[in-house]
Design brief:
610 residues, eight-stranded parallel β-barrel, 14 helices
Length: 610
Amino acid sequence: MRRLELLAPAKDYDVAIAAINHGADAVYIGAEGFGARSAACNSITDIARVVDYAHQFGVRVYVTFNTLIYDEELSQAEAMICQLYRIGVDALIIQDLGILRMDIPPIELHASTQCDIRSAEKAVFLQSLGFSQMVLARELNKAEIEDIRSKTTVRLEAFVHGALCVSYSGRCQVSQVLKGRSANRGECAQICRLPFDLVDENGNVLARNKHLLSLRDLNLSNRIGDMVAAGIDSFKIEGRLKDAGYVKNVVAYYRQVIDNVIAANPGDYKRASYGTVVTTFDPDVRKSFNRGFTHYFFDTRDLRNGERIASVDTPKSVGEKAGTVKKCTGKVVEVSSSLQFNNGDGISFFDRRGTYTGFRINRVEGKRLYLSQNMVIPVGTELYRTYNKRFDDELNSSGGERKIKVDFKLRVTADGRLVLEAHDERGNKVSCAMQAEINHADNPQDARQADTLAKLGNTIYSCGNVVTVGDMFVPQSLLAQLRRQVVDALDKAQRVNYRYGCRLNEDMLAKCFSTSLLSADNVANRLARKLYADHGVEEIVPAVEVAKQESCSMTVMHTRYCLRRELGLCLKTEAGRAASQQLFLEHGDVVLPLQFDCKACEMRVMSPSR
């Protein structure tokens, strides 16, 4: 049976525990360096704590080690990998293939989304290097995933929710070129979220002050079944900078979705971890930060279905639709809405100038909202709730509860020993025994014995089936002592029986997908060059981060998202052919030329023209 894995982000220890308690099968977390989020670093000690907690439930811990590594950093990176292996981390998510030429333990390796895996040819090559799991490019549609699946055997991972990079991951150099901050080094300056003017070669402004490169957030929750059928094994939530509330809600939501897929196919799929999860809120991803949702390219490469991809009006959260304005007089707004509002809710809207603004509700009376300041909002204006006070309070108060089911069997041996056997859902079987004076009972003892064994308190266990010796009288203190011993034995058995993966063998005869590599292939150190040379690469242009900056034009963003298509100006249409051929993005003094490859249906943002 295929194991379906829900993979959650963890900014720190607390968020990791929240993700696990709300249903994650695996978490990914950054260490003290070399992770593609410089603002989400964690000590080896804290990661070890996450590992200890996670492995109780069979939850795996992946460390993001997915930045480019410079030559002078190789020994430091090597030492850190050895530390991570010693504390029991399950796998490293990496981009820099130089790691495969380091002297490191046989830790399992996963290919990061930064590896830009969007062809079967590249996926096959990375599999041949010994990767156990590969994160596919977010731009792939169902047929493209199926093609990669048909040619590979390792586990495939894909993003299902959260923020989208407009560029193919790993192939965005705009932050490095404009700000000297490399996205491939965890220092992305978020250029794609800035407002731009779209201008043609004659200086005509086609769009003014719009966030033309800012995409909506991915939401494939209603495509999980299709993704499973296409060959995806691990379903990844983006958001390693998100707080615990966001992670609780989104993880709990996708836990329900994936469990429904498993329930509908009980002989084909199973969960990748253990434990029943109980939450105190009804998860709803619309109530957490989002820029509006998109399926991106999973369904189709064009927009014939009418779905928009970008969030051009604002890069901020638009939350959930909250109705329309019926009347606005000073500090009172009357709305037409099916929602129940709360004191303290945050409401946003677009004003007449197109500016995204908002207000906080002081007091609610039905559909009448009382504000702290005067507002002028035209009748019919659409409102969005970007902060739900009641829901946020529920998230903050939810610690989540995850319990491992354990069955007990009590018996008495011929020589008078009392034996308690336990078998948990993880497959661990233990027994403890002690000599005791056991007498026949005058009254049935089943309920009392079962009740005593079920008192598992603050442990991670919950009581399942219990077989008792109902015709025997067993002191409660004795049963409680045996129960504690058995619980301790289960904990020890799980630590002993926990199964780690390991790095797969590298096929030294495998040939690279190309004999020449560009700067966008991100080769930044001597070990990476050695790896590629071992597999037939003859020419390598070094990564932008380590090369001298040249004045010639270069691609700083390579994307399947196309502004022409998004704005109804596709060159394959009559409207597009009638429009200007040369377009530029302008932000202040920065002008970025655009190039369009209609055959591949891709767009390239070029380095500044002035």
